[in-house]
Amino acid sequence: MFKIDPASNRIQPLEAKRFSDLGFTERAHLQEWLESCPEALAQSSGEELLIIQKEFNGFDGTQERLDLLAIDKDGNLVIIENKLDDSGRDVVWQALKYASYCANLKKQQVVEVFQRYLNQKALNDDSEPQDAEALLLEFLEADDLPSVQLNTLKSQRLILVAANYRKEVTNTVLWLSQFGVICQCFKVTPYQAGDELFLNVEQIIPTPEAADFMIGMMAKEAEEKSVNTEQKHSHTLRLAFWEQALEVFVQSECKLYNNISPTKDHWLSAGSGISGMPYQLIFGKNEVRVGLSLQNSQAQANTLVFEQLEASRQTIEQAFGNTMDWLPLPNKKACRIQFAKPVDGYDKANWPKMIEWLVEHMTRLEQALHEPLKAANQALKKTTFSAPVEPIEGESSEGSVDA
Predict the structure, then answer these.
(1) Which residue from 285, 303, 348, 368 has the fewest beta carbons nearer than 10 Å?
(2) Cis geometry, peptide bond prior to residue 206 (ω within 30 degrees of 0)
(3) CA-to-CA distance for 68 and 102, rounded, in angstroms?
(4) 93 and 155 within one domain
(5) How far apart are CA 238 and CA 257, in angstroms?
(6) Max CA pair span of the chain
(7) Which domain holds residue 349?
(8) Pick from 116, 114, 106, 215: which is nearest to 150 by CA?
(9) How far apart are CA 368 and CA 319, in angstroms?
(10) In Å, what is the CA distance from 290 to each residue of 107, 310, 341, 359, 401?
């Protein structure tokens, strides 16, 4: 690794160091770094990991502790084992044991494990603990726990982290991959340049180029062997619901969804006139919802528009006729403004009234936000961000926002 010196137009080699030489330890340092920044283990693939426990020892009949327990976007548990300068000979066996222990965790037990982790973090920070189930559903982009695939059979993954790997470790990992065991090896190397310290995290097994192919083949095989009944049922219901809802919307005053097709998703989006900031209808098992989702790829743009709208909150809510939920969602790209109604969504007898409610409240929401969105659009056009904002859609020469 080299450090670039723009002034001299030269590069300078950084000095690779050992963790032990720098006084870093596995538990107090490497583990803490990965807990606070799990994206370091996902930078090559772009996937997201959610840490749900640290130093987990909830295994019957043993006092062993795994370093970090995470979950991926597909609901698979990820066992993360950290070593420092040397992987040792037994790290694969150690990780496999933990995976076998975790394989027995039921869905509700996973939620409870995560809740204990959040409770402990809140205690350490002297703050109120967050709700584990709500955070899991948000991370997995699901509307209820029963429909989520979580820690299913043979879905556990392994991640090994070390500065150097012994041959018996790498050979075993490659052999396991032939049997569908997903195991990734990350090489972590500290570097020093003067008083500055750097950490390089590199996935070496499988190589980033081969990872997508291997994961894709395993996913295809799993899909051919089994179809999740609950998910299939949910998809069928959602498609049928949206078909009925769109028929009613076409006959209504609200024309947002005239050219939108029904889907199997629990949401249905329509353009608001600003790119990446759609109106959304939500059909869930326990609620229906209308809202505006600010999910432009530029987090700064989302924040700007949200703040512009929030400044007119009283006027907007008065025009809408109800108090709405304003969710800035700090530390995330997206923001939301929404209004919900509790329902028994999967009872088809309730669908006509649910659809009537969605049509009425989306019509009111569009009307309430029409003028404030125009003003937000103008503010967005006049603002320069650190990187270009996506082009604004539906913009006339006067900069108006399409209804």
Answers:
(1) 348
(2) yes
(3) 12
(4) yes
(5) 16
(6) 73
(7) 230-381
(8) 106
(9) 5
(10) 29, 17, 9, 9, 19
Q: What does the DSSP 8-state code read for residue 30?
A: I
Helix pair 167-177, 91-102: axis angle to 10 deg: 40
- Total structural domains in the chain? 2
Q: Which two tokens stand for residue 116?
A: 């204990």
Q: Which positions ≥6 away from 21 have C-beta within 8 Å?
A: none
Beta strands in 66-174, from DSSP E residues, in sequence order: 66-72, 77-82, 157-162
Q: Is 321 left (phi over 0), alpha (psi -120 to 50) or beta?
A: left
Which has the minimum average pLDDT: 255-269, 330-344, 384-398? 384-398
Domain's final residue, options 209, 225, 241: 225
Tokens of 201: 């995290």
316: closest CA among 335, 341, 291, 340? Answer: 291
Of 185, 201, 225, the position where a domain reaches its end is 225
Q: pLDDT tens digits for 197-253?
A: 999 999 999 876 555 555 555 555 555 554 456 677 888 999 999 999 999 999 999
Look up residue 100 and give its two tokens.
């076998």
What CA–CA distance (Å, rounded) separates 329 from 336? 8
Angle at 396 between CA 392 and CA 402, to 5 degrees: 70
Distance CA 146, CA 204 (A): 36
CATH of residue 237's domain is 3.30.1460
Q: Are 334 and 295 in contact (CB under 8 A)?
A: yes
Q: Are residues 298 and 207 in the same domain?
A: no
- CATH number, domain of 162, equals 3.40.1350.10
Asked if 323 and 174 sit in the same domain, the reply is no
- pLDDT tops 60 at residue 264: yes
H/E segment holding residue 123: helix 107-125
**Cβ distance 275 to 391 under 8 Å?**
yes
> Looking at the structure, do residues 296 and 371 belong to the same domain, yes or no?
yes
**Phi, psi for residue 214 in degrees, rounded to 5:** -65, -45
Contact 363, 254 (CB under 8 A): yes
Give how far the C-alpha of residue 107 lies from the chain's centroid of Cα atoms, to the nearest Å. Answer: 18
Contact 292, 337 (CB under 8 A): yes
Beta strands in 251-342 (DSSP E): 267-270, 279-283, 287-294, 325-327, 335-342
The rounded distance, in Å, linking the Cα atoms of 357 and 350 is: 11
Reported pTM: 0.56
Phi, psi of 186 (to 5 degrees): -115, 130
